[in-house]
Design a protein that fits this description.
Number of domains: 2
Structural class: alpha+beta
Number of helices: 9
Mean pLDDT: 89
Radius of gyration: 21 Å
Strand content: 25-35%
Helix content: 25-40%
CATH architecture of the largest domain: 3-Layer(aba) Sandwich
CATH topology of the largest domain: Rossmann fold
Low-confidence stretches: none
CATH class of the largest domain: Alpha Beta
Order of helices and strands: EHEEEEEHEHEHHEEHEEEEHEEHH
Largest sheet: 7 strands, antiparallel
Number of strands: 16
Length: about 300
């Protein structure tokens, strides 16, 4: 039964806030106004058994008996998209479809949220900005662990760091307000890069680190052809589908909790993997593209 309404990103709409509060009160509903910029997102850290939660003022947003209203904003649009996507799956929500659209569908931040919402395991993660880091210190003091992995937007292992202390984390977090992904460090001797093309796994490579952390071949890692299980195959195919990618490079690691997806790469480098898989990945991709175009032209 609906008891309260949370309104997001309406802080400067004074007339709307007062009018909406009165209309809600007439229906015996309470209201609360919050800004998405004050929120962070957690994955796997949640005592309520939700795969993904939104944290506000150091506490998970309550979704039981709660409805959410999103006002469209030209600020903080990316985080608004992620939070709207999460809450719309957990509670009644009134959302313009524009709030559920993003040009970053396959971005590592988005994938970190979308995969666990669909039942695919990822490392425990916290998604935040410099601002939301500061306003949720109490929550973070009990949930941050070290070492951790810090990820910002980048490719080929760039903008990814292992940090061992809070001071190192804060240095990498920086002073800008861009989204940063903080993941638990999963100790491993290798990970797997799995190539998915049009819903089929076409190759898998085992990547091992040259420095104890970066498994990326572009960062000096070593590779060899790998065999994967049916479960791992299904996970990679589903991950590519969720990311809406016809060609994807899915990175996963085998852990005591089962396969964990690190990342879904939307523009995976293929040529450097050819010596390990025994065929030309770019040629396989080219043939698939041409076959598809020829089919559609008939």
């Amino acid at each position: 039964m609906l008891k309260q309404i949370v309104v997001l990103n309406a802080g400067d709409l004074e007339h709307f806030i007062s009018t909406f509060h009165e209309a809600a009160a007439a229906r015996s509903l309470t209201t609360e106004n919050i800004d998405t910029k004050d929120c962070l997102i957690t994955i796997g850290h949640n005592e309520d058994n939700k795969a993904v939660s939104v944290i506000y003022n150091n506490l998970p947003l309550v979704t039981k008996d709660t409805g959410f209203v999103f006002r469209r904003t030209n600020q903080d649009t990316y985080r608004t998209y992620l939070i709207a996507t999460i809450l719309s799956k957990q509670a009644p929500a009134y959302i313009d479809n524009a709030n559920l659209l993003s040009d970053k569908t396959a971005d590592k931040m988005t994938i970190g949220v979308l995969l666990p919402l669909s039942g695919i395991q990822v490392p425990k993660s916290i998604l935040l900005t410099n601002h939301s880091y500061k306003v949720n210190q109490q929550f973070l003091s009990t949930h941050l662990t070290f070492p951790s992995v810090i990820k910002k937007t980048g490719s080929k292992g760039k903008q990814v760091w292992k940090v061992n202390t809070l001071a190192e984390l804060e240095e990498k977090l920086g002073t800008d307000d861009n989204l940063t992904l903080i993941q638990e460090y999963i100790e491993n001797d290798y990970d797997l890069r799995v190539f998915v093309l049009d819903g089929k796994v076409i190759a898998a490579v085992r990547r091992s680190s040259a420095d104890g952390f970066y498994n990326n071949l572009s960062q000096g890692g070593q590779g060899e052809k790998a065999e994967i299980s049916e479960q791992e195959r299904d996970i990679c195919i589903k991950a590519a589908e969720i990311a809406q990618l016809r060609l994807a490079g899915v990175d996963l690691v085998r852990s005591p909790r089962g396969p964990l997806v690190f990342e879904v790469n939307k523009a995976p480098q293929m040529d450097i993997f050819n010596p390990f898989v025994g065929f030309d990945l770019e040629k396989t991709y080219s043939v698939a593209v041409l076959d598809d175009l020829m089919r559609d032209s008939k």
